[in-house]
Structure formats: structure tokens, C-alpha cells
Known about the structure:
The protein is mainly α. 49% of the residues lie in helices and 3% in strands.
Amino acid sequence: MITGEIAEKAKIYIIERLCKDGGFCFYRLEEPNASDTYFAVLTLRHLGIDFRDNRTIAFLKNMQRMDGSYSSIYSAYYSIMALKLMGEKPEHDCKNFLRRNLRVYDPNNMPAGLQSIFRQTLYALELCREMGISIDKRKKEKIADFVFSFKKPDHGFGKEKSTLIETFHAVSILEHLDYSCNDSLEFLKNCENRIFGFVNIPGTYPSFLEYIYAGLELSDRFLYLPRYMNAVKDFIVMCQNKNGGFSRSPGGLANLEYTCYAVKSLHLIEKI
């Protein structure tokens, strides 16, 4: 659990973004959304606050349609996982929706700006595990074949070239499917940077909090001690704004997602 001034400022930042009718909104209007709510509740848990709010629970349950479906796998993921953190479940059976969405997504038909071609599949897999949905061998093999088709000679994964974010997601998916990918540690090492700690693509700069988080998650999985841990810590601390939240990079605009990555990263540093 993260303690001290950094943690106290982050707690205040998050709680100030709780909407009157439930849910969270990082820009402090009464416009809650599922992702901000998930990141807020999860971060508070890492900061030692067992958050539970009936209005927030009602808000999240209303994200689901009467037939058990959601507007997207993202909406389902953030809603269901936030409910879980508060000891609740969706109002309606969502297993058919999740089974339909556990599939290989077309990497050429992804939303603009999406950093990973694997995120949707990873979210669907995690939800299936959460809801106790078994996955048959044929589907596991199909998903694994898709992921491995994007493995590069440098042992990383990516659509065009290997990236740290996509390698983190790919390794996580393969772990869910009981496949090992320990050689990706070599790509992780190539993403280390003495100034930032980690970068998304070897030899590039600058870095951002999601790259730091991905690097630490992979380090934890591979039982690897990063070479530039002081640089990692310094970068994270520099991303905290005066209002207590964390931005994607030093001097940027804080939001709940990057605050979550920062706090989880600090937790991983303690663990590693």
C-alpha cells in the first residue's frame, strides 16, 4: 500500500472527482463515465481505501442493457470490474455478451489512437475469467495463434513493430491461455532507458506513464529487477501535479487513468 504525502494528495484528488449522483469524472463535471469510475475505485483500493458508494453502484449497473449486453467490451470491463471492487455484480446475466466478444478483433479496424491491437481481447478474457466462463481449447488456440502472428524477431509483439504496451498485453493474454512467453524479457530489456526507466519502442523518447506501468508489470511477471529503477521512480513522482493527480508526462493534465497507472506503478516498485 502506498503511503505518505504522495498518497494523501492522490486520495484527495480522486475523492474530489466523485459525482453527486455516483460515478467519477476527472474534469469535475456531473458527467460520470465507467472508465473514470473504475480507475478511481481501483486506485483508492491501492491507497488503502475500501470505497463503496450505493449511488456509484447504481450508476455502474445502469451501464448494462436489459438483455445483459453493454455498448462495448470497454464499457463492460470498466463497469463489471469496478462493481467487483465494491463487492457487487451486474444486474443481468452477461455471459452470452462476453462469449460473443471473446474473439480476435480486426487489427485494421481499431479506433483511431488505440495503442494496442490486443486490449479488447485481453479485456474479454479477463471478464470471462471473472464471470467463470470456460473457454474451449479450439478458441484458446485461435486467440493464441492470432497473438503469436504479431510476434517479432526481437521477441516483442506489435502490429507494425514491437511496442512495450502491446508486448505487455500479448504476454498477459498468453498467460491467461496457459502459454509461456519468457523470451519477451529480452525485448523488455531493450526498452529500458537510463533517463525515463522504460520507453515504448527501443531507442525512442520521450516516455509516458503507461509505458512505465507496462514495463513494471512485465518486470514483475518475469521476476526481473529493472536496471534504472531510480529513473522510473523519479519520472512517476514528476508526473504528480499540484492538485494531487498524475499526468501522462511531467507538466501535463492529470486524469484518473494516469493517476491509477502511477499509483499501481509505485505499488509494483515496492513489490519488485
